[in-house]
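RETRY 2/3 - previous attempt timed out on the joint model. Re-submitting the same 638-residue input unchanged.
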Amino acid sequence: MKKFGNFNIAALVIGFSFLYIPIILLILFSFNESRLVTVWGGFSTKWYGELMQNQGIKDAAWVTIKVAFISSTMATILGTIAGLVMTRFGSFRGRTLFSGMIYAPMVMPEVIIGLSTLLMFVALAVDRGVFTVTLAHITFSMCYVAVVIQSRMSSYDDSITEAALDLGCTPFKTFMLITLPIILPAVIAGWLLSFTLSLDDLVIASFTSGPGSTTLPMKIYSMVRLGVTPEINAVSTILVGLVTLGVIAASIIGRKQKQQTI
Amino acid sequence: MSELPSVNPWLDPSQKPYIQIENVTKKFGDFTAIDHLNLDIYKNEFFSLLGPSGCGKTTLLRMLAGFEKVTEGRILLDGEDISEIPPHLRPINMMFQSYALFPHMTVEKNIAFGLKQDNLPPNEINQRVEEMLELVELSDFAKRKPNQLSGGQSQRVALARSLAKRPKLLLLDEPLGALDKRLREQTQFELMDIQEKLEVTFVIVTHDQEEAMTVSSRIGVMDSGNLIQVATPTEIYEAPVNKDVADFIGDVNILRGIYKGQNDVGTQLHSDDSDSIVFATQEVGASTGDEMWFAIRPEKLEISKKKPKNQHNILKGLIEDIAYGGSFSTYHVRLDSGRILKAIRANRVRTEEHHLTWEDEVYLHWEPHSAVVLLS
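RETRY 2/3 succeeded.
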């Protein structure tokens, strides 16, 4: 066993407390009996029950899941294609520029993405709603998928594809039977990543949503302005749980894929 | 006449070549990888493309497979122009250097993959897969995944997969490069057996000259996008066309000299390394004063402490280094001129009597027919 020094233990405790105390508090107080958010009044799950009665939150949750599902699926398809194309074409003039442009939305401030997509929708006279939020989410999450796929393809042996062609398989069938199954873990990881990104996005959704397309993060944000209630803690806890599950699943799948390639 | 196929079909003008590479050029941008190359390969040949890395041998192989398009010229297989046919429609299979096994499929699924593309009935596929597994002695490994196989086993799965479709032509890209020496030698013999048994034409790319010598019916030595010499292993070794080929295949001593003319012994050469004239039986068309070279293989140089009785082809020197190789020893002999020659002697006698050691003064001698005269 490795011995941890006192300093290391202290650093670890401080670091993790800094990261997780707020979230742990939130989860704890979601089980609070008392209506007062900061005063502990005993254990209870009544706020979760209350939550089920709240039509506004349920509607927002449904919108969020719908948007997240569709946008992550679309982003995965587009991002996978982008990632494949970037690796398959090897080096050509302007390759760095192209791959840079795919990654740009990752570092672009969300406010800018939200604002620019809003301007586009206004210019094209598209009515804002679930459709526009979904489109905007596809735009910003597809680059994450492209990154995941591209890093997977960097360790992909092209002669595997050639071997399939050589054995009489058509290019399309080769993609479906060979390439896709081999990179499938990366594709799923990309999907989970974009799903969670869409799930917890507030800024871009606020810019691009319209009537009837309030997402859960937006709903929570607007409720908080009227004061923090244990109900918000409860819904946030559920959201945290979902995102955590997604991230854990993505990393497990990612690890499995690493083992397979060795 | 006999029914047997000709042993040396390339010498028989009535034989039709199976693969005809006609004036093929391949350019990558400004770089010319293959430069107006012509080559005929006959049915059931085990043909090796040999050359240093970057000589274009892999590019040529990939053009046969269809992964690279020819820039100019054409490639015929059994009389049919295949230059424009995409790889998945060519009756040619390839064994890849990295083996390129499908990691998500078991050994038997890997082997069956090509057969499934031909929509063969399932029982025939199973039968052929079993045949192939037996051929490469991997029947017990049918259900394994590629990551559960050793290097040698993966290599045999790759071979089985590429042979399962009974291709007219099998291309092998450095097939044994990743194996250790002992396994490689064993596999070379297996490859030759399989090639004879299945009567498939093999074209193999290798940079390992020993491998090429062992397995091939003919070798094509390549350099900078063209063939320098196409001949049997023996011809390549014993009668290389120039210094580069002589040097690339095996060890060789090369003496530079000036052409003195022809007499009844053969070609006379005045060399800086010898006090007297040296001879080679081979006759060449040259005029007095031309620069030329004698190539002598180390095993054809006799080394002894006693001065040989012959008058010619004797060089004197000191043993500078000895590489003891068990069955034979290689001696590095420094001549008076300063040049170092290599001589190989079989260790046939166990006693010390015969022994040569460092700093011994020795004579090197060769028969006039042992030297090859090279004009370039």
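The radius of gyration of chain A is 22 Å. Closing ticket.
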